[in-house]
Design a protein that fits this description.
Length: 262
């Protein structure tokens, strides 16, 4: 098992597989690198694939401070520096997109050459002016509270709710999710939901691919807007799946990503 020790002494778990161009895959909230298990075997035939368990999640669950998107982005930068990786395609799913936007805000294109943003609007909070389709302020606070009272139930319900095919066996993924440190991921969720990334997205100049699932709990039109706000963006839509499109339609996803990275 490989770990990075960050400059504030947190231990961040990561994996490496394959050879070729560097492809970093960053998971979403309450998940782990394991969620890309349907993608890594194929993508690692073409690329050097790196996954990470974000601070407070999965095998990085010992973290007790830094429950902010900016700290998670800094962890990613430290990992790329530590491994001396350059010309990296950063692929972020859900909150992983926000971490990518924060990375750009902090470090610009240092060590990066491309972005792939998977199913995340510029602002995830539901407000009268932003119909993201997820949670409003009160619902966000309620979810944060539920993580303290019954983390396993809260995360299990969340993960089961983001797949379209309800016959899928998600046991191993959920088991990895519930490793998360509730004292970390609860305040992190609020920080994640409160950030509006519109201004940052408009400054990202490197080639970027935005992918959305039409059946996602997010308003896919807001995800498409991300691609339109990017100076060098393009958009792909998956019509029959939702937020976990990379898992449910892995073959299509792997092909699109392979073509884009190459």
């Amino acid at each position: 098992m490989s770990y990075l020790t960050t400059n504030d002494n947190a231990k961040i778990y990561y994996t490496e597989s394959g050879h070729g161009k560097n492809l970093l895959m960053v998971h979403g909230y309450g998940c782990s690198g394991k969620y890309f298990e349907n993608n890594i075997p194929e993508l690692s035939k073409h690329f050097h694939v790196i996954t990470v368990d974000l601070r407070g999640h999965g095998n990085s669950n010992e973290a007790v401070s830094g429950e902010r998107i900016s700290r998670l982005a800094t962890d990613i930068h430290e990992l790329l520096v530590s491994l001396d990786l350059k010309d990296v395609t950063y692929l972020g799913w859900s909150m992983g997109c926000s971490i990518g936007w924060s990375y750009w805000d902090l470090f610009q294109n240092d060590r990066l050459s491309k972005f792939v943003f998977v199913d995340e609007p510029a602002w995830a909070l539901e407000t009268p002016d932003n119909h993201a389709g997820l949670l409003d302020y009160q619902q966000t606070l309620d979810f944060c509270k539920s993580l303290y009272t019954d983390k396993e139930k809260a995360l299990s319900s969340f993960i089961k709710g983001i797949v379209i095919n309800k016959d899928l066996d998600l046991t191993e993924l959920i088991n990895d999710s519930v490793k998360a440190n509730e004292n970390f991921i609860s305040p992190l969720f609020y920080n994640h939901m409160a950030n509006d990334w519109h201004d940052v997205i408009k400054t990202i100049t490197i080639p970027s691919l935005v992918i959305s699932g039409k059946k996602s709990f997010f308003n896919w039109k807001l995800v498409k807007q991300v691609s339109e706000d990017l100076p060098n963006g393009q958009f792909e839509i998956f019509n029959d799946v939702g937020h976990m499109l990379f898992f449910e339609e892995a073959d299509k996803f792997n092909k699109i990503v392979t073509e884009f990275v190459k």
